[in-house]
Each structure stands twice: as C-alpha cells, then as structure tokens.
DNA sequence: AATGAATGAGCGTTCATTCAT
DNA sequence: TATGAATGAACGCTCATTCAT
C-alpha cells in the first residue's frame, strides 16, 4: 500500500481500519477477530495497524468512539425541533427503521453486547454518552407531552424504554437471525405499527 | 474432586459443567472463555471436562440444548390454558419479568448474540425451535383474540414481535448495563406498564 | 473382565497384554500407541494394564524380552544339527521365509527400528542377545565350511551379513509396503533364489 | 534469528528446518518429535516453523518430498550410461556404500519404517516413485545382461531385490545398531564382497 | 484383581506484538 | 510510513498415571 503522507490521508486510512475492524469484530467478536484480517480487509499489512493503534484494544476503543457520540446529538436536535410530542414521536418512529436498516448501529450493538464484559469502561461510557442521553431525550419529550395534556404518561422513563425496545429488538434480529435468510423482517411496517400502537396507548381517553 | 460413579452423579457433574460454561461464556464470550476456567469453576480439572464433552464446541452445543427447548413448551402450554386473549397476554406479562430476572435466558441470549456468527447452525436451530415457536404462540393468541372480537390486531406477527420486544430489551439491558450498577431496571414495573399499554393499544375502540 | 486368580491365568493375561502391545506398537509406534488401546485390544480396562506393568516403558521392555531370546536358541540348535555347511545353509534358507511370513519378527523389527533411539539399552541388549548371536552362528557355520573346503569364504562375518540381508529386506518390505497391497512379495521364491545364488557364489571353482 | 527477506534466504531457512526435522524425526520418530525441538535445532522459535509449514504433518511431507525423488533419477541415468550389465552392477555396488554412509537415506528409511502406518499415502507414493523405479532400473539392467548372454538370471525382479537387500540391511544396521558404537560396520568391504558374490552367482557357468 | 473417573503435564497451533529494513 | 518475518505466551486437547471403590 502506498504511504499516507498528509494528515488527511492518514485520517482516511485510520477510518478504513476502523471500518474493517467493525466488520471483523462484528463477524467474529473481539477475541476471535484477528489483527491480520483487520489489516488485510483495510488493504494494509499487519504491522501498519500498529502505526495507527497501539494495540487491538485501542482499535476497539477507537471504533466505539468513532461511532457512538455524533448520532445522539442529531437525535436530540431532531426531537427538540418538533412542534408537539406526538409529532416528535412520529419523527422518532421514522428515524428508527433507518437506524436499524441503514446505520452501523446494529453491528455495533452486537459487538458491544458480545464483548461488554471485556470492556466495562467502554460499556459504562457508552451507556452514559449514548443510551442515557437517548432515553433522556425521549423521557423529556414524553414529559413535555404529559405536561401539555397531549399524552397520558404514567412513568416517562419506563415508557421511553418501551418506545425504544422495538429498535433494540429489530437491531438484534437483523444481525443475529438474518444472516443468509431470504425473508427479512419488515422493519418499516414494524415501526409503523409500533407508532400507531404507542400513540393509541398514550392518548388521552 | 471425588468421582462421579453413578450415572446420576455423572449427569449432575455434566450439569455443573454446563452451569460453569454458561457463566464463562457469558462473561468472556465463547472464544475468550478458557476450558481451564470452566473446569475450575465447576471444581474439576481441565482434563475432566473432556470426559463429559468432546470439545469446547460440544460444551457450547450442550449448553444451548440444555436451556433452549423446555422453556418454550411451558410457554405454549401456559398460553393455551388461558380463558381469553387478554388473560393470556396478562399471564405472558407476568412470566416475562421472571424470565428476565430469574432465568438463564438473558445470559444465554448475550452469548448467542455475541457468538452467533461462529455458530450459524446453532442460531438457525435456536430460531426455529425457540424463537419462531414463541412468536408463533403469541401470534396465535392474538389472532384468536382478533377472531373473538376481543382484540384489534392489524398484523398479528408484527404485533407479537412488539409484545416480546421489551423482554429482549430488558434482558439485554440487564446483562450489558447492569454489571456492578447500583440502580437496576425495575423489570416488574416495566412489564406492568407494557401490559397496560399493549392492552390499551389492542382494545376495541 | 473376570479376574485372573491363579498365577497361570495371570500369566495368560500378561501375554494377552503383550500381544495387544505388539500390535499397537507396530501399528502406531511406541509414542503414538495408547495404553487405553492396548488395554481394550486385550479386553481389559485401562487401569488393569498397570497391575501387570509398572509403566508404558515396562510394557515395551516386557514385549521385547518375551519375543527376542527363545528364537535364537532354536536357530543355534538347528544349525549345529546339520551335517555339512551347505546343508546348514539350506536349512537356514528354509527357515527364513517362515520367520518373515509367519513369526512376529517383522512386526518386532519394525517397532525396534522405529523406536530404537528411545530405547538404546533395549537395542543394545537385543543386538547382543539376538543379532550378534544369530550372525555369530552363521559365521561359525561358514567358517566350518571354509575349513572343510566345502565353501569359499573370504570374510565369514560379512558373508553372514549378506546371507541374512534378504531376510531383513523381506521383513521390512512386508511390514512397510504390503499394508493393503494385493500382490505380496513371493518370499518363498526369493529365498530359493537367494539359496541358489549364495551356494553358487560360495562354491569352490 | 535475523530475518529471511529474500526468497532465496527463505528457501534456505526452509531447508534448515527440513534438516532439523529429519534429525528430530530420526531420533524420536514422528510422534515423539517436538515442533519446539525442530525449531530450536534450526535456530528459530516455535512459531517460525509455522511460517514455512502449515503443520507438523506438512513438515513430514516436505521432508519426504525433498529427499525422495531426485536421487532415483540420478541412479537411472548412471545405470543406463554403463557399457555392460556387469559394469552397471559394479557402478551400483560403488554407489551403494556411498548412499549408506554419506546420504540421508538411512535416516529417512528409519523414519519411514517407524511411521509408515501413520502415513500410508506417503509410503505408497514413496514406493511408486522411489522403490519401484529403483528396483525397475536394476531389473532392466539384469534383463539386458541376460539377453546379451552376459548374465545368468532366473528371475530378474527377485534378483534385483537380492541385489539391493544388503543396502537395506546396511542402512538399517547403521541407524539402529551404530548409535554410539565404536566398531562400525565396514560398508565398503561389505559391498565389495557383495559385488564379487553377485557377479559370481550371475556369471555363466 | 479390576475398574474407570480424575488428574495435570505436555504438545500442536495460533496470533498479538515487535522490529529491522 | 509500510512491511512481514520472527517471537513466545497462551490455549485446546491428549493421554500416561493414580486411586477410591
């Protein structure tokens, strides 16, 4: 492979390595993934990986950090831009299938679940920076809906969890059960249904 | 360790090894789990494991088989014993928190998710014998409720998935985010809420 | 297996173990042969072998000792019973194919060759008690024939070696190259030819 | 150990490993030989062996292939270059002691004999490519001598075997009985004697 | 005397990491 | 910066040996 001289080229190569790492970690899990395979998937040789990451563990940390944070900020912005709570929920239910079907989130989730015990700090950090903030944003919108009388919400935090549960379910389903399967889960329809059921369940009588 | 001479004692030891294996696989993942550690967790020496299982892979298969199938049969029986669809759902929502909090299912799920790519046949078999049957049973009860006019169900299969989604969510949550955390998720309350929201969402207007 | 109470029964079982050991050592070599397999081939359990032999090494030694010595004494007797040197040689050439085709010698030779470096004392002992005595006996008969003018012998020791060389060749051939081969070496014919050629080569002009 | 960078240096290192392997297999047998010992005898570490050979078995195959074939072609050429059958035989009897005393053949033969049952395909291949061709070449020269009236040959194939038998004998003798022995077999004299006896035995009356 | 469950040292093999070029 | 040969710790698995019954 020709050399990455500029800092831009280096950043690109670093990203290529992270992409390769995600795929390898996803397919094999952290322990079974081989540095060699990450390297060749990124089109470089084994030693090169160590120019960009100090160790396999650092590749993992780099991977988590590169994916985690940005998405949540987007989410927070989107939810705050909605006029009403129901509108915000509907935006959410339109975003969710996109995340499940067209983002690296399911792969990352699989990796995190599989290797969570090997990286408790990562899990902790991830929970605080991603999960808690995500659930927090939804909790807030539910409480706003409750205050405005728009929604009937008994426990906003638990309700937020029920709101995102199908996303977790669908993400897991995709990465675990849809490897080489002909009939994939209809994610769009699932979230449309979820939308209508949640709206009905939270509507004032 | 004293010897297992009767076939009963041997079966007990086999089970002790499977228990140890579940914990090790759960904590480290299949690849990172060491046969040595499984052995000492079960209180025997390395070589002894191989008296009960031909290989690490066979330990894994033994583990999956020992946990998977029986539970689902129970579920099917329970659901069919209910008088009405709503009653059946309520039984389901009382069972779910038990499964999440007091069965090996969450640990097993974590293992399966983490190592699904290493054992596609296991995943396939598990899906057919456990997942599809579980979702199938719920789908049937929803359709029965629909036929009797008790429930409003647009798509029974997708609805069944939304019914179980919080169980997947809660199971994952427990094993991933509640390692050494002081404030655990209130699973009971979550499923009570899920119960009331699902019932409301499926009720005739 | 029922117990061997009398010392005769014990001796029989010991012999059964040695027979099994010869076959196992022959088929796998000393290192690759498993005590377990020797035991089951003899129809007893693993632990029983250790009632008759202190260790795997002792099984090997027991095996060598049980086969080696007696045969050579027979040979010495036979050769001394002959009227003339040529007669003695002819007896020898009739015995040789029997040894090659119908005695455990080829198997034993294969084992000894394969594991000679692991058991230098055994090899040394075997050479002194079997090989040197065998070659010595033939050397003596050749020298007797030379003294009587019956044979032309330049170097009796080397000639003795040329006399037995085809037996070594045939023994090796059988155990190495005739495993599952349809057309075996015609040992009888080989030694008839050897007989005639040696006689002609050693005859006075 | 410094690195083998050029393909020439790598070929050299591969050869060094094969040399080490021959010695280890010869001394301990295939099963008892340790990859570690092969490595250190070649001056490299354990892992390095696996850069050159996929497995212990492949080391064995590599060893057989590296030694077997070339020698026989030489032999065929040499025998065909002789003016007469007797001349050819004499050349053969001058080559034989060289092979026994100064080639790896005796060591290789010992290894092959000791582990023939573990590698039946190797034995089969070796027999066809080396043994049968070697015996075939000698058979042909004997038949040529017979046709020209130079030699009296009853059965060319069996005679060829008697011609080479002392080489097998001497090779075995060397590797089995001359480990740490002061008085080695006089191989030169043995083959001189064999020469004269064979010539006499095959001469027309 | 016989069994076979248990042990643990030992070996083949893998792979993260290093480093000379 | 990039390479890939070399290393050696680590792990799955085997099997000679022990010992309680």
Identify the most extensive interface between protein chains. A-B, 48 and 50 residues
| Helical run tally of chain A | 9
* Spans where pLDDT lies below 50 across 5 or more residues of chain A: none
Number of strands of chain A: 0
SSE pattern of chain A: HHHHHHHHH
Task: Please give a handful of descriptors for the protein shown.
homotetramer; 205 residues; mainly alpha; Arc Repressor Mutant, subunit A; Tetracycline Repressor, domain 2; 2 domains; DNA-binding
Tell me the layout of helices and strands.
The structure is a homotetramer of 205-residue chains.
Chain A: H1 7-28, H2 35-41, H3 46-52, H4 56-80, H5 85-102, H6 105-115, H7 120-147, H8 156-177, H9 187-202
Chain A binds a DNA duplex (21 and 21 nucleotides) through residues 1-5, 10, 34-36, 44-48, 50-51, 55-56.
Describe the structure.
The structure is a homotetramer of 205-residue chains. With 205 residues, the first copy, chain A, is mainly α. Chain A folds into 2 domains: 1-53, Arc Repressor Mutant, subunit A (Orthogonal Bundle); 65-202, Tetracycline Repressor, domain 2. In chain A, 76% of the residues lie in helices and 0% in strands. Chain A is built from 9 helices and no strands. In chain A, α1 (7-28) packs across α6 (105-115), α4 runs parallel beside α7 (120-147) and α5 (85-102) runs parallel beside α8 (156-177). The model of chain A has no long low-confidence stretch (mean pLDDT 92). Chains A and B meet through α1, α6, α7, α8 and α9 of A and α1, α6, α7, α8 and α9 of B. The structure holds a DNA duplex (21 and 21 nucleotides).
